[in-house]
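Progress narrative, work stream C.
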Amino acid sequence: MNPDWQNFLTTQGAQTQDGVVQHFGDSAAERIATRDGTVLSDLSQFGIIKASGEEAKGFLHNLFSSDVNALTPQQALPSSFNTAKGRTLATFLIWRNETEYFLHLPQSLLAPIQKKLSMFVLRAKVKIENASDDIVCLGLSGANAATLLQQHFPVLPRSPLDIVYHEDTGLIRLGADRFQLNATPQRAPALWKQLSAGARPVGSPCWDWLNIRAGIPVILPQTQEAFVPQMANLDLIGAVNFKKGCYPGQEIVARMQYLGKNKRRMYLAHVESDAAPQAGDELFSMEMEGQSCGTVVNAQAAPGGGYDLLAVIQIASHDAFPVHLGNLQGARLQFQPLPYPLP
């Protein structure tokens, strides 16, 4: 987190840990406000990798699962970076300006992914660097989010993943009532004060809960290389383009799409558990006879108690058997509908 920005958030009541805002004094009330009201969140649980240089577009296009060649400054794009075996190393949102590309991914993956991308550069005219301190990202969500933004910006992005720029701030529409704002560190404090007048500040876990409810998986160190993109529904949220050329893992991803049968999918669930589920936790059902039938991708405390989570699970187990956290005697998952249809 940019040091000046962190100092500012502290003056606003933010309680931080390892550079991530945990809450503003009342986590439980903030969770309820995230569900029922309009909230403002710092997004420093994510960092930014910047790619620049005259060959940056082709370089990234040849590495990622989405069509980077088709990306324009007026849109953002979900994407993934995979191994040669088709296993996902990172998921992220990517956007660009006229000359540079920006990858928004978890801080816990930033350094290893930056290092791995740099290994591919070789003689390419591309520069890969950490730009996390140069851009402050904010999240705004709720029924009044658009109305609040219209008080300060003359034009808003109309469709999901559209981007509109206003001087030193970029607005990305993530959904009907959810926006990401990318601002300079100099602009961010004034912007925060303007928006917090009409939106409750909440900790980063609240934003992570919104991602879970939206069915957006965030790969973390505990789940790197655990899934092929289709298992985590990346094909359903626009993070995989099946018409583009080769990239690491493309053959595996295409084979699963056209020739194979995907036996796992990602599901949304609620669980009442004494201990908080963690990314990478195993799930069990009788169908698998003692073997794990799935893996938690992301989990956060839910506003009404218990925990909401995304989990990649054997389709057969989901369809016909109770699924439990940790072991067959563990808390049972209560499945809920995702905001998009499963095939």
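Work stream C, second folded protein:
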Amino acid sequence: MSELRDTPSSTMTFAPRPTGSPTTFAGERISYQRLIETELAALELAVHGIADVPNAVLARTLSIVLGAGGKRLRPALVLLASHGNPHASLERRIALATAAELLHTATLVHDDVIDLAASRRGSQTVNHVFGNTLAVLTGDYLFGKSGELVAGLGSPPIMSVFSWAVMELVKGEMLRPQLTNDLAETEREYVAKIRGKTAVLLAMACETGSMLDADDPQARSAMHAYGMSLGMAFQIIDDVLDFTATEAELGKPVGNDLRQGTVTLPSILFMREHPDDPTVRRVLTGGASDSETERAVDAVRHSQAIERSRQCAAKYVAEAVGHLATMPQTPARRALEALAEFVVIRHD
């Protein structure tokens, strides 16, 4: 998909967010977490066990990183994609799911170094506590450990997909969408970046999960496509939440991307809809005062750009669900559909 497309607001409708479990849906929709509750509990033990190393400094940095928690979305996708594989043991499924989570966590550690972030998920970052050198080394260790877990599965095809994802992620991180007068080109660059930054890892998790101790090319293709579309929607909603969530929910200032000069879809759509308002462009190019920055964040937050961004994300969710059409109607498929819908209505 070369660029985002406008989507009528009537394209998809979702049940209101229920009280209690944020991933439980009305009707026949089921909670993806409930379906794999046992596996997720085993995953938590495996992830926290990674910090049990003889090197005291590494043990401390890993404890900070791995103790911060998170959505566990990528390992959940591995577990759901492998749910119907009768030959895939729990131990091997957990190993692959843990590898996916460690790879994702490694990217976050390196992101925090690049962004000079002092906190994540309400906790201090490794680079803030120990400095950039130890943070980078911690991220490197997590990359290596994730690779070791995948190699231990003895599946060259899975290792190949895993390696592809790492290379695509690096290329995606190196992309920096440029703000020019051609907003269509800026949008295309944004799409390319979030594909590599986010979508590729979700596609990898889905694809490798479907491949584990199984040989179903159709399922593999469907899960890869599902993960790519889901990842695009997930990152767009992340960029929306950067404006609409509270500072307490975000663990950082509202509108942080805009404040740091990072071009995201809500800002692009705002500038397209308000060509005579230079405030957002001035913030992105570093020429705005503090008061102008606050006005720009507030303007985007209360503009139609937020709803239009959600509509674009809903389009990708519809694509993701559509990719599951060739799969049998199983609890795992229904959980994947519910997970996709949750991506659009989540609040954090």
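DSSP finds 17 helices and two strands in the chain. No further action is required on this item.
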